User: Fold these one by one.
Assistant:
Number 1:
Amino acid sequence: MKRILITAIAVILLQGCSSEPEELARGELDFLDTDGQVIRTIEVEFAEDDAARARGLMHRRQLTLSEGMLFIFPTPDSLSFWMANTPLPLDIMFVGADSGIVNIAKRTTPLSHEHIRSTDLAQYVVEVRGGFSDRFGIDSSTSIRWKKTE
């Protein structure tokens, strides 16, 4: 009887710790030139809590040039990311509280444990497919804006 009770408790606990990630809010993100004109618009998932920010784009095997993820932090800080469990090269854009791009780590090394850091305080991070920023001319003069659609 004791063994059955322990097994039942273990099953309940495992169900509560599902490995399926929760559905993230979605929306659109615009990259803007210095005149405020749209350079490119992509669809993004919003990583707004600790769990979503920690998971990021890990284990994703596909990411088109029209997709990405926006990480939103509560306050500006010196941010650090890594590519552990991320099999795709990414461009990681660190963005200040003013929505201007601080710096871009281009074509990051998949599955690396190397820390990729912001060069100044950042409150947001945009992750897109590696090569995106070069292809569309995104640089530190670019800013972003976004809206949630879901």
Note: Strands lie at 26-32, 38-47, 67-77, 80-81, 90-95, 101-105, 116-117, 122-129, 143-148.
Number 2:
Amino acid sequence: MKAFVFPGQGSQYCGMGRDIFEIFPAARVMMERANELLGYSITDIMFTGSEEELRQTKFTQPAIFLHSIAAATLIRRNDVTMTAGHSLGEYTALCFAGAISFDDAVRIVAKRGELMQHAGQENPGTMAAIIGMPDSALEGLLEEARSEGIVQAANFNSPGQIVLSGDIAAVKKAVALAPSKGARMAKELVVSGAFHSPLMKPAEEELAVALDGIEIKDAGIPVCMNAVARPITDAAEIHRNLILQLTSSVLWSQSIEAMVQSGITEFIEVGPQKVLQGLIKRIDKGVATRGIDTAADIEALKAL
């Protein structure tokens, strides 16, 4: 059984999606429609924008979504029985599964990016990657670091790879303490906010209002959602978990494990770069992975 998985923020690169736009008329129609809906040319930012511009959350999120959903639409396969996305990628998964229309997904992803960027400016925070630390040491690390403020696990990316998020002082303290807890590496990340932490609460509240303004349907195939790490099709549950996602941990490792237990044996990452493929192989070495990023990748998969 196969699953499509969709990447999140951090996978963007300059020139992303340009070959898909130029070669496939259906992708061009989708991308030009997104430009109309957004009121600016996201494709210009994707194709010829600077790295600094593309790194702005308000642009990063619609760019990655658009690249991913255009590729997925071109290679839609009947043997894909489940889907998931990492953080932002969850919206792509829901659009692919038919729970959210393309137009609504473009609008809500852009709104989410704007809200998260604004929340990061209003409530300054940071994030850090902790590599190689035993999971059993996490709570002790967080408890000590919380003497400096809010900090929590934002992403459980794979065994031994956790991303922390929260107040700057608290995250810095966690980074300093991590080696003593067994971490092989602890590094603060270059981000514009403390995503997936309580510092995103203002964004969560406004996103809830925005989500009330779009139609969310039951998903056509199960979507394994970040906040609960289980496959969901019910529209009300999807709505609830999208709101929770902004301030909750991304349970990616647990989600992949749940998908494998459900019978998934091959994961196809659809969108820019190969981040999720690497994580999935660290979670379960027994599954097959492949990636669809470029026009050449799409042609190769169509030929199978």
Note: The chain has two domains: 2-121+198-303, 125-188.
Number 3:
Amino acid sequence: MRSFVVFALLTVIAAGCAVATVDLNGYVGLDEKILTENNTNSYFWNRATLGLKAYSPISQWVLAYGEVRFRTLDGSSALTTVDLANRDKVSPYELELREAYIDFIKFPYKFIDTRVGKQRIDWDNFDPYDLSDPLDYTEKIPTNALKFKATLGESVLSAVAIPVFVPSLMSSNYLDYVNDHVRGLTPAGQTLSTIETSVTLPAGRTDNSMFGVRWEKKIMMFNASLSYFNGRDSIPNFNNITFTSSGTGEVAGRATLDYPKIEVVSYDLKTELKGIGFWIKGGFYKPNNVIQQVFTPTSAATTETPNYTKYVIGTDFSLPNGFYVNAQLVHGFFDERGGELNNYIQARTEKILLDGSAKFTFAWLGEWQNRNVVGNLFNPELSLYPTKDSSIAFGSYSIYGEPGSRISQWNPLDQVYLKFNYNF
């Protein structure tokens, strides 16, 4: 069935190229990651990717764009002798429609552009995260949306509506994190015998649709924006954790996760002064009845997440000798809420080598609590550019976080990696 879908998509693309002006391009990549923690030397990631992008100006006022991605999965999933005769088990892959939208220029009014379809919304809070690679928390999942962009003199006013909620794609070890959270709440003196988990998704109703507006304008030397979001947090919340007696000195745990409603008012200021970039952005989060209930055989407790504020303060600059530096202070990571916000420093330096045919990058993420550094993530990388459209990257991650820190969740992910990429 999947082979038929692939064939049908390629046929549609080829037919489109034959009847209309279509700009077809894409990318090919290979990504290998090997875990080095405790000398496991096991492959964590083994993926080849083919991406195809098609862009077509249907008319002067209507434009269409689409992207599909074919990607092999990390290894064979064959478990039985029958599976060995199943290509999807022996050599599994995934087919994903990344984006597919139409732009209507100057519609419905001459100062408004409209985009409809599956698209990437480059605002915070809208698109869910793709955490299949847990160390890449910048990857997002495009969603079906309706977007209006109105140019009003020197200001731009945008509005977005997403009809149906899409949760974030969590990492393969997310269940371990959930189980550890439940274990940490086990009643004193009791042994946890079993853990059951379930997730409650918002119903596909209009009252669960998400929307937002954003105003942008250049004010003096600043590029400024102010936005409002009304929707749901795409990262699961521990809504209900119940422990019931399962024997003498034993309890069984059950956790229910949900996706709470939130409202966010956020701002963004950017400027450049003598070649040095500065930015500050933040958001005021108003959770709507975000609670965690914990029930034991002898007690009950409810914790409600209060309003909270996240912010980022950053700078970047280039030096004449080919160095680029980027650093920012982060208060509140993407998956933190309420009183659990921690502080981080993200820093990155790049050095161009061999007249641009190579680049060395060193990135650092540090976490501190109560004025003490409790976690470090180091990421050196050497990139080679055989041609202007191709790259080869060698790198590693070295991670240590003290127990209870956010970075400690990544402790098992020390790794080395090798990436190939070609754009056409």
Note: The chain is about 10% helix and 55% strand.
Number 4:
Amino acid sequence: MKTDVISLDNKKVGDIDLDEAIFGVDVRRDILARTVNWQLAKRRSGTHKVKARADVAGTTAKPFRQKGTGRARQGSKKAPNLRGGGTCFGPVVRDHAIALPKKVRRLALKSALSAKQEEGKLVVLDAAALKKGKTGELLKKVKSLGWESVLVIDGAEVDTNFSLAASNIAGLDVLPSQGANVYDIMRRDTLVLTKTAVEKLVERLK
């Protein structure tokens, strides 16, 4: 499928043929949801923890005698039902990651790219490069292009000046092609790919 290639000055500088096997597949919303959940689960640190009965410092002596007090029997001051005791079934340090096959992940990335193309929110850029890493200069270009929530994906390496200028602009994310992922693509309204990024993604997903 033919798509226009534009410059940062919002001028058409050519066109590019996008591979339909990557940018024209049927969008699987269920696969997208599974992959986003997988990414967010992997991101969780899982370091939350409470003190269980065995972790509470204190005496191991029986608090009071078994019979004759009129109170319920107790064997330890560290029991969960007593003040200062351990927590029962509380969170512990663990890995929240879930398994997701590579084929599903590849299909999800293709679906994300195809979804943006289908919605008309995929833009192909000639190059994401600036002579100076000035935020004001890039901000003018972004406003002229009408971008408010955008992810820019470049080739193997992102232009240093472009990355510096973009780091101060809210709603503008920049990633190299190997960092392209479903979550970041779907969380932004517009997806911008450089010509180099298109080539790298086709190599990666073929």
Note: Residues 45-95 form one domain.
